[in-house]
Amino acid sequence: MVWNEKFECMPREELSRWQGEKLHEMVERVYHNVPFYRQKMQELNVIPEDIQGVEDLKKLPFTTKQDLRDNYPYGLFAVPASEIVRVHASSGTTGKPTVVGYTRRDLTVWSEVVARTLTCAGIGKNDYIQVAYGYGLFTGGLGVHYGSEKVGATVIPISGGNTKKQLQLMHDFGSTALACTPSYALYLAEAMEEKGIDPAELKLKTGIFGAEPWTDNMRKTIEERLQVQAIDIYGLSEIIGPGVASECQKQNGLHINEDHFIPEIIDPATLEVLGEGEKGELVFTTVTKEGLPLLRYRTHDLTRLHYDQCACGRTLVRMEKCLGRSDDMLIIRGVNVFPSQIESVLLEMSETKPHYLLIVERKNNLDVLEVWVEVEDQFFSDEIKKLEKLSEKIKDNLQSTLGLSAKIKLVEPKTLERSEGKSQRVIDKRELS
Ligand SMILES: [Zn+2]
């Protein structure tokens, strides 16, 4: 099933033409309505007439999260306040949040792209979707909510948290689909096991999980423990929220809704545009947004793009599951380390849980990586000798994957903080000293 065959299965040439036209219109709008962009374009000696097709994208300036912060709260909006009908904001872990605004038409586009995401995952009007993403300023909850109503599914707007109630409603209301972060999905699976609920007794069949990076191993674990097909969805509030890209049931990369968001892959160091299949930072230009259109927004997510056609029939480009973030990357003693690599190693071992915490410190001018790992119940109750052996095994496995030796600290199950949203998995103390 495809939600919007015209755009999701459009021949590429036709799609490029559409993108070019929309891009030109959008650049006209921001040039005249957003002083920030007019100035940036003038600095680069570019006028809207220079932008006629997607091949001209590279002439345009980049936008960063810092630009949004510097223009807090509404400085980058391209329409008068009277046209804005909703605002959302990112969590803003450091300093002020980034604010995004939507016109009535933006909200229509948003539910359209989320409707595509849900259809991609096989969710339709006969489904009961439990939306366990947070409702509020975060775009996850309301974003998925309106898209779900658009496809005609029955929405259970429970929001995040309240795990006991989640399980009760999942059972009583017969939820067939679950929308939340992958780490919360895993937490729900654990809570279910604790309560002796067999997922086979539930009607759950699909999960749409996003808002944080997760590995294929994590997917396998969730699929087994919740007995669902776990679909990776991708979005960020700056671009629109959920609905930017989604896997189809072939689970072979995430289709980007390119008629609204044009992707590029750049080298994060040189900012040079990379070719198909090359790994780099994902950049988006929104060509249909009215409230907050963005030129070449740097996501810091690392991935690759594939243009060959997917078995599902969609022609939309596919991005690989995010391989990490250019700014989450830890450099430890010169080695590039992504938290997802460590997660992968832990998931391959039956003795450990995929809950971990990385602590990086600098001692005597040397970086030290300590990995806290939760151990499965039955192993933790074993004798010290066995635990020491396990610790060695983790150390060896990490060493061979990362090329780096780490100090391992085994902790009892449920010691590490569980998150109902995004998990904090890295404490880098080097920046504090
Ligand atoms: Zn597909």
UniProtKB/TrEMBL annotation:
InterPro entries: Adenylate-forming_Reductase, AMP-bd_C_sf, AMP-dep_Lig_C, AMP-dep_synth/lig_dom, ANL_N_sf, PA_CoA_ligase. GO terms for biological process: phenylacetate catabolic process. CDD domains: PaaK. It is an enzyme of class 6 (ligase). Residues 334-430 form the AMP-dependent ligase C-terminal domain. Catalyzes the activation of phenylacetic acid (PA) to phenylacetyl-CoA (PA-CoA). Belongs to the phenylacetyl-CoA ligase family. This is Phenylacetate-coenzyme A ligase.
